[in-house]
Amino acid sequence: MTQVLFDPKNCDFAQFDPETRRLLRAVVDWFEARGKARLLQDDKDQVWPTDFLDFVKRERLFAIFLTPAAESGGDPDKRWDTARNAMLSQIFGFYGMTYWYVWQVTILGLGPIWQSSNTAAKQKAAAQLDSGEIFAFGLSEQAHGADVYSTDMIVDPQPGGGFSATGAKHYIGNGNLASMVSVFGRRSDKPIIDSAQAMRTKPTQTDYEGYLFFVADSQHEAYRLRRNVVNSQIYVAAFELDNYPVAEADILHRGEDAFHAAMNTVNVGKFNLGFGAIGACEHSFYEAIDHAEHRILFGHRVTEFPQVQALITDSYARIVAMKLYSERAIDYLRCASPEDRRYLLFNAIEKMTVTRQGQRVIEDLADVIAARGFESDMYFPVAMTAMFGLPRLEGTVHVNMALSLKFMANYMFHPADAGLAALQAIPGAAVAPAATARAVTGALSWSSRKLAPRLGAVVPPLRAGFAAATYAPVPTRHDAADDEFLFRQGPSSGLGRIRFADWRPVFEEFRHIPNVAVFLEQVRAFQGLLAAAAPTTEQQRDVDFLFAVGELFTAVPYAQLILEQARVDGTDPAVLDQIFDVFVRGFSANAVALHSKPTATPAQQRRALDLVRRPAVDRTRFDRVLTEARSLAGTYRMTP
């Protein structure tokens, strides 16, 4: 990797087409010319970013990046290109969440529009983007949060046609100025779904028929802007609609399609959470390492203290891991199709794990930078506030962990390791000594790999399972293509039918790296736990217990994509070993947490401790990564 952390003053964006390179460079130059003092003063004074939006309008930035090719009017530069959108998200995160947030919420507001069959609404949105307008996503409510079944935005059918909408929305970014607000509501003449019942039994299409998405204008007289609900430069609105006229031409989605539009919008839009986190962590790392390398305490540089060296090295490794995972996740999203929906798991981890890793980076760097991180001329306080928010936007961690768990069985076992299910039938497997359990797990896994393909040739269910998990290789995607599938994802259901290719080969390819090998041992033991001591029916209703299992599970696909991207980038083996040193320690800590859960069965407690490992310690490797991290001191300082 020739440039591990993003350096605005030494980046050429060579992976992109000429117009994308020009625009990304223009964004960086705008921030640098504006300077750090202005950036921080506007944040302190909570100034709405009018000058930023003037720049966006002048460069047609959002219009070019956020208009799908189908709505481009023939403009060859307009397309929805996830790779360049992610890069722009990272840049905005690097300079401040105010700018990232305006962009992010505009993406969310556009989601239901671009998915709609309402041609007039799409043409209007494209024209509004060309005019430099921003958009908003009117989904959440103060009383119900993410429980969209219980929406109190009531839409009354009118005798002469059309509707009248009355109700309140809460925590709506850009709700002060958005030219088009995509609003989720329900008809007053249709029944409401009981959300508690919906969690147990899927509602029918008839149950959904009263729900809809429509567009509203934040400047309309019946749109009542109440307040900004946060003390910040961004505007997160509480607004009410008071008999707001909704024409048939304003309707985007009806019935169950409205729910799918909401979920699919989140798949597209909140994918950017991780990239905003990466940018914030990169800028913070530059500040922290610069301060620590040049501060002398008790005759030593701060970077010479052992505890600081551990924090710096781990933080650097975490940031590199975040970047590797996220780059690879882009490829899966861009290659997605109705036949390959693996992106739904990888997106959930992008939103959840990458943002939480970012929070951990900021926490550790705060111990490095200490009081300097609170001073008024530092970007670091801006990042601290942002990084405690990103994992918590609309319950990001909780929602995405619950989603990830839906994929666990298929990812971990089907079809390649289906034979491990035999552990459930072996007497005493749940309480066998750790060495015995490890041997049995390994043998069954090897047998599955060797025998299952042969059985698949003659056993129809196995044959179908293998076929469902057979995918063409996923290439690196920086090509200038329009990701049109994102706006025709279809129903958000059917997750249990999604199959995953065998995750083991990439781990085995990197087994020469000591801590990859240790981590693979832990994952094998985790498979054994799931097979021999699976969650009981009662535990499957215990969210606290399931989240402990989910912490272990989601570490596996996170590591898988990191290794896949490391193969592409030629990542330094020492850095990879340090990344997996962090992973081994984290996996062990999460295994102990599962062991300690009050509802864990004796068998689960025993098998959980099988996962605990000590990472392979190598001082030479550690020093190499530390030296690489310290070398970044002084390489980037934002223009004053």
Automatic annotation (TrEMBL):
Pfam families named in the record: Acyl-CoA_dh_1 (PF00441)
Regions annotated as coiled coil: none
Keywords: FAD, Flavoprotein
Domain Acyl-CoA dehydrogenase/oxidase C-terminal as annotated: residue spans: 259-402
Transmembrane regions listed in the UniProt entry: none
SUPFAM superfamilies per the UniProt record, alphabetical: Acyl-CoA dehydrogenase C-terminal domain-like, Acyl-CoA dehydrogenase NM domain-like
Required co-factors: FAD
Family: Belongs to the acyl-CoA dehydrogenase family.
Protein name: Acyl-CoA dehydrogenase family protein
